[in-house]
């Protein structure tokens, strides 16, 4: 489907719609590839509400049968074949030092988005780092404590939907400030929990807030960035999550042995407060303003457009959720229980487990930024497929060795490729998102995927405890977390590979007419875009 305006068109502007469609269809417009490349609207301009965003131009529906001209599988096989073709040298990305140069407002907005995701990650990993300490404090097993992680992940879609709809209707800035403020209160209260039930209740509220933050920050960041810089900054934005993990590991090492786990939660609110203060000086997204100006009749119009979007883009929505479920299984399955694996299965100290986490996150940051950058040349799907293949090769090194140094090498390389694939995600989801739902669509897809993968750490912990190994040091048994993690991550890497191959690609799509409109308040249409081949 080729869509023309940010919120759909009414019968009063059909002439403009028809003119715009004719211009787009007759231009030298590169084809778009993807899983729904053969699911397109009828070629005629109807009286229906036209939904934001475009469908690939691989085919048109037959007016009699409602199916694409030719076999619907032609588009699928065509774009899979493209994945294995040599990248066009004309699409080679620019010097990264040039791409990193942003205007002051762009740099400030992106910094706030990164900090917001960092503080969410920091708080999340404060729980995973202290699983053993929390279990001892509350008189529970580690698998019981991981239910707090599960609850957090399960409730994130509620936050994504709630804050996403508010952000798409009323703007990104105020919802982000509210989200971060509430998050800080919950973070502080978590350190005062006296039992596991209270702690899980607080983490449930935190899960809703965490679910809303990513969509808000991602939409703000991606909408303000220059198109050609989107790949590398996508990697930097997503690696704020790994940086939060890294900060949590360092704080754990410095704080928990000396002051206890409660102090870790209290101290971690400091970057959250800084982020709140910075967010007060944000300006609203110009891309949202353009889309908003095209919407009339308020909420009634918005929900009508939303219904039409689901009708025309249902396959894209399902694909995005399934893909994000696989990606979240990959991330949480490779990170959340790894400190516990090092401490309980291998008997390493808390300090050594922290070192393992730090090394893994250094690899994650390197991989996320590098592969985010290189995706401007290789393409989003091809980059993620490469990461899946390479990452699977390092699973044995990640779990099988007994030597600490060798396990560190495995942790480093597994995270290079796990988070290398993740470095593409902010740009990828934003580019395939319908424009009027750029806060809701990526955030909700991300968090519904999180919901599906919510039990990753609990599955690993429970199965690891049931499949114990003899501990030759004292004759007792220890959980076999390594085997469970290895099998799960190997399977998920395979799923990510398949999903990347069959996915859609809209690399290079513009959210505003050009980047100067972000600075100058230009009124050009949000849906004028170019797509690289």
TrEMBL record:
The chain crosses the membrane at residues 107-125, 145-167, 174-193, 199-220, 232-255, 261-282, 313-330, 350-371, 407-429, 481-502. One of its GO terms (molecular function) is carboxylic acid transmembrane transporter activity. It is found in: Membrane. Residues 109-507 form the Major facilitator superfamily (MFS) profile domain. Keywords: Membrane, Transmembrane, Transmembrane helix. Residues 513-533 are annotated as: Disordered. It is a multi-pass membrane protein. CDD domains: MFS_SV2_like (cd17316). GO terms for cellular component: plasma membrane. Its main location: membrane. This is Carboxylic acid transporter. The gene is JEN1.
């Amino acid at each position: 489907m080729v869509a023309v305006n940010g919120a759909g068109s009414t019968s009063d502007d059909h002439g403009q719609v028809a003119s715009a469609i004719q211009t787009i269809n007759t231009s030298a417009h590169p084809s778009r590839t993807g899983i729904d490349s053969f699911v397109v609207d009828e070629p005629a301009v109807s009286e229906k509400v036209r939904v934001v965003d475009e469908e690939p131009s691989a085919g048109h529906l037959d007016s009699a049968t409602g199916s694409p001209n030719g076999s619907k599988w032609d588009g699928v096989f065509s774009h899979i074949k493209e994945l294995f073709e040599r990248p066009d040298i004309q699409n080679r990305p620019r010097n990264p030092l040039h791409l990193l140069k942003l205007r002051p407002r762009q740099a400030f907005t992106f910094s706030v988005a990164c900090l917001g995701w960092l503080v969410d990650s920091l708080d999340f990993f404060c729980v995973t780092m202290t699983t053993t300490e929390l279990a001892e404090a509350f008189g529970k097993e580690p698998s019981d404590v991981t239910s707090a992680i599960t609850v957090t992940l399960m409730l994130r879609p509620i936050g994504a939907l709630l804050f996403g709809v508010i952000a798409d209707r009323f703007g990104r800035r105020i919802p982000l400030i509210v989200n971060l403020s509430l998050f800080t209160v919950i973070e502080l209260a978590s350190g005062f929990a006296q039992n596991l039930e209270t702690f899980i209740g607080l983490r449930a509220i935190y899960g809703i807030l965490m679910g809303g933050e990513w969509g808000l920050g991602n939409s703000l960041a991606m909408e303000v960035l220059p198109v050609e810089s989107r790949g590398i900054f996508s990697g930097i934005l997503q690696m704020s999550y790994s940086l939060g993990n890294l900060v949590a590991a360092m704080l754990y090492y410095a704080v928990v042995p000396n002051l206890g786990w409660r102090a870790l939660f209290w101290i971690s609110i400091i970057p959250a407060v800084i982020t709140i203060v910075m967010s007060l000086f944000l300006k609203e997204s110009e891309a949202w303003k353009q889309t908003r100006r095209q919407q009339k009749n308020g909420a009634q119009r918005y929900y009508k457009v939303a219904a039409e979007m689901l009708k025309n883009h249902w396959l894209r929505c399902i694909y995005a959720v399934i893909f994000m479920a696989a990606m979240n299984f990959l991330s949480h399955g490779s990170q959340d229980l790894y400190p516990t694996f090092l401490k309980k299965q291998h008997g390493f100290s808390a300090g050594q487990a922290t070192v393992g986490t730090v090394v893994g996150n250094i690899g994650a940051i390197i991989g996320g930024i590098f592969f985010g950058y290189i995706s401007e040349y290789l393409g989003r799907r091809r980059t993620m497929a490469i990461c899946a293949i390479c990452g699977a090769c390092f699973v044995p090194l990640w779990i099988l060795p007994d030597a600490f140094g060798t396990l560190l090498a495995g942790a480093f390389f597994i995270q290079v490729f796990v988070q290398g694939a993740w470095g593409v995600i902010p740009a990828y989801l934003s580019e395939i998102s319908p424009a009027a739902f750029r806060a809701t669509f990526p955030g909700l897809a991300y968090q519904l995927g999180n919901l599906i993968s919510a039990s990753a750490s609990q599955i690993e912990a429970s199965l690891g405890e049931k499949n114990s190994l003899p501990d030759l040091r004292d004759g007792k048994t220890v959980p076999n977390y390594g085997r469970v993690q290895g099998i799960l991550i190997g399977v998920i890497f395979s799923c990510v590979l398949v999903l990347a191959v069959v996915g859609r690609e809209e690399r290079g799509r513009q959210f505003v007419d050009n980047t100067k409109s972000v600075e100058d308040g230009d009124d050009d249409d949000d849906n004028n875009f170019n797509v690289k081949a």
